[in-house]
């Protein structure tokens, strides 16, 4: 049975988990090592069963717990070459840790098969398409200002897609952020807003995907209710009923979200 969850997800920190049986992969570790370990213990998961950590990019809300974790646990780390080089220069990756660049290619990681793909952000950044031992497939893409054809290609045909719904455009425009930050977030190298996320989900549903996780919601410029309402309105207008035809879950900022089986 293939399972997806997030240990925490939002602008304050991100860590996703893909599981098959007792084996699992982590995607990012953007809060403290203690927070991450506590969440894994709550799920009954052993560090020895973690087959790899996939890093999307170098920003602190995706890697801030990694250095302490890797001082105590020898788990291989995967990411694009530029990200791994930056982490090495910061001393985040100890010499004993195997760091493997998988820019745009497919790698067998334990019992999983993982393909990375580039996303449009203001630093080198990637998403991941993951196939489990029982031939189930999911993809995760956060921190992207625009859905490029490459991203759409890797999201297509999945059993589950975890996609960023970072901000509501009206909340961002009328919110407290300085102008330069609003421009950065809304740019093609920033983040994905609720309506763009909803439009992509509609395309993916029409392509056959039925299960979705909304990730990386902004604490200032979004809420789970606002993200879900935006998505629901787009789908209902197309004759698709969330909860009956498809499963859509907004991931929790500070807590483990319910597992989604895919």
UniProtKB/TrEMBL annotation:
InterPro entries: Metallo-B-lactamas (IPR001279), RibonucZ/Hydroxyglut_hydro (IPR036866), WalJ/YycJ-like (IPR052533). It holds the Pfam family Lactamase_B_2. Signal peptide: none annotated. It comes from the Bacteria. Residues 12-180 form the Metallo-beta-lactamase domain. Coiled coil: none annotated. PANTHER family: EXODEOXYRIBONUCLEASE WALJ (PTHR47619:SF1), METALLO-HYDROLASE YYCJ-RELATED (PTHR47619). This is MBL fold metallo-hydrolase. It comes from Gemmiger gallinarum.
